Amino acid sequence: MIRILQRLPLLVLLSGIVALTMLVPASFASVRNEDVIARTFFYAALFILTFCGLIGLATHANPRPQRSRETLLTMLGVFGFLPLLMALPFAESLPDTGFFNAWWEMVSSLTTTGASLYSADLLPAPLHLWRSLVGWMGGFFVLISAVAILAPLRVGGFEIMSSPYGRDEHVQKLPRSADPRQPVSHLSDPRHDSRTSDPGVRLMRAARLVGPVYVVLTLILWIGLLLLGDPSFLALTRAMGTLSTSGISPVIGQTGEMSGVAGEMLIFVFLIPALSRRFWPGGSELRATERLREDPELQMAVAMVVLVSAVLFLRHFLGAIDVASTGPKMPLMLADLVNGLSALWGVMFNALSYLTTTGWNSVDWQGARAWSGLNAPGLILAGLAMMGGGIATTAGGVKLLRVYALARHGEREMERIIHPSSVSGGGRIARRLRREGAYLAFIFFMLFAMSIAAVVTLVSIHAIEFETATILSIAALTNTGPLAGAIPLTPAFEASAGIASAPWEGWSGLPVFTKVVLAFAMILGRIETLAMLALFSPEFWRR
Q: What are the backbone dihedrals phi and psi of residue 426, each rounded to the nearest 5 degrees, phi first?
């Protein structure tokens, strides 16, 4: 059976998986006596499965092997074509929203951006479940495609740690300079042809490795939130939104309104896998060190969370000096201590949440504002989202390893100013990060900055304020949709997504052209600019 599935075109196989997943919200809607929505999802699943079966039968007799260089096109097709299928039941369930808005919503969910055109309290629960499932599947596809598609092509962050000798330098020594170097047959080479070069085989192999871990972690977080007081449906969507870093929620409000600080602490722990690939199977070539505490991405994440938490806490502390205590039944000093600890936890949780591009907000985030009387510094959250999480994880942004390589390169240049004849240490991996890694990281950073400038320019074509256009562009390119809700924006009311839309949150009232630009920005941020530029390379299309 597995061999038969591997012979199918990858997009057909993924379309069939999407159709089978539609049966989950169909069953959920049927249990809730929402029969119209249940029939809509069931008929859409039946319709897609029928066409997938017909296409599968037509291509099974004479399958065309897919070249490794075509995998980027497949990945682009996943984020561009599959949302069209996912939008079918969503658009039918909300007749006044239109197919375009439903497609935009599915692009946002599948790219784990989590931006929504609709108010959470106006959407039916089955549609919330479908959005969460799409975001959860999008996070899973990112995890497996990173090692099955991007790693063989040495893009998506893998170019920073790729060995020029094509071997594991942690185990094998480098050849002597006098020894002739043998050419390495790379998967991106058009002449490379083997069973492992087939993207379907690699994706299934990666899915068998990552899938059990991904599902088990989701179940553990779901049960944990359920035990801490969240309703079952809310706990499930929170768990899927946390593991996929989509930040999709079925309610309006902060993360721990029901489960409290204990629920936020549990979510805080499960956000850590988005900081490094070493928490997931595969991607061993990204390990710069063998010890967990010496991992550069984790060190950079800890440093940024501590630094941002200290700065924001000091800011709120200084602002709270002139604010009177609001607890009449408590002594003044004790009330200030409780408020201070709550503010510290709120900024720590939000710092990690936006660093992983999830976008959850702590219940104490607003409490810190009330304690100090100061507005929330949203631009700091935007900076954390731009920095992003770990390479080959569900997080978006520039990625921590690239930031680490640039920081080490800057440190080395400062050292050379003081000691021009010094020799850098740290081993082969550290030297590569400071040299070739920093060079490639700088190229990506400049491309990312140019992408932000281009998207802001296109978004500003319509009557949208520059600050609003900038934040929306950053939120789309970093796949951090809730960022637009964390920073006060001037909403636009030039369009609508139906009676359930929420134009005051910054997305729904945008013109159609602006929504198209932001949708493609989400796809660009998910696939990354270097991978997209590879599609325009002449060598990519050369036979």
A: 100, -10
The helix (H) or strand (E) run that includes residue 309 is helix 296-319
**Token digits for 374?**
């100061």
Phi and psi of 501, rounded to 5°?
Answer: -75, 165
Identify the burial level of 181 via C-beta atoms within 10 angstroms of its C-beta, where 0-12 means exposed, 13-18 middle and 19 or more buried. exposed
List of residues 6+ apart from 6 with CB closer than 8 A: 198, 200, 201, 204
Residue 255 has pLDDT above 90, yes or no: no
Contacts of 398 (CB under 8 A, 6+ apart): 386, 387, 388, 444, 445, 448
Alpha-carbon span 387 to 360, nearest angstrom: 17
Q: Could you please report the per-residue DSSP string of 111-132?
A: TT----SB-TTTS-HHHHHHHH
The sign of the torsion formed by the CA atoms of 245, 464, 101, 149 equals: negative
Distance CA 433, CA 440 (A): 9
**Tens digit of each residue's pLDDT (9 = 90 or more) over 379-388:** 888 999 999 9
User: pTM value?
Assistant: 0.87
Backbone angles phi, psi at 506, to 5 degrees: 105, -15
State the pLDDT confidence band at 57, using cuts at 50, 70 and 90.
confident
Spatial separation of the C-alpha atoms in residues 382 and 2, rounded to whole Å:
44
Please say whether the beta carbons of 489 and 506 come within 8 A.
yes
Residues 228-237: contacts with CB under 8 Å, at least 24 apart? 228/259, 228/260, 228/262, 228/263, 228/266, 229/258, 229/259, 229/260, 229/263, 230/258, 230/259, 230/263, 231/258, 233/125, 233/128, 233/129, 234/258, 235/259, 236/129, 236/132, 237/128, 237/129, 237/132
pLDDT exceeding 70 applies to what percent of the chain?
80
Amino acid at 213: V
Q: For 118, phi and psi rounded to 5 degrees?
A: -120, 155
Residue 320: pLDDT band (50, 70, 90) is low
Average pLDDT, stretch 217-224?
96
Question: Quick one: the chain helix, strand, coil %, rounded to 5?
Answer: 65, 0, 35
DSSP per residue, 523-537 = HHHHH-HHHHHHTT-
Mean pLDDT on 105-111: 94
- Amino acid identity at 477: L
Decide if pLDDT at 172 tops 70: no
CA 357 to chain centre: 6
Q: Who has greater pLDDT, 496 or 126?
A: 126
What number of other Cβ atoms are within 10 A of residue 421's Cβ?
Answer: 5
Do 431 and 424 contact (CB within 8 A), yes or no?
Answer: yes
Q: Give the pLDDT score at 344.
A: 85
Distance in angstroms (rounded) separating the CA atoms of residues 443 and 529? 10
The per-residue pLDDT for range 378-422, each reduced to its tens digit, is 788 899 999 999 998 999 999 999 999 898 888 888 888 888 877
Please identify which residue in the block is written with the tokens 């990690």.
352
Task: Tell me which DSSP letter residue 326 carries.
Answer: -
CB-CB contact of 33 with 101 (8 Å):
no
Q: Is the pLDDT of residue 201 over 50?
A: yes
d(CA 160, CA 530): 12
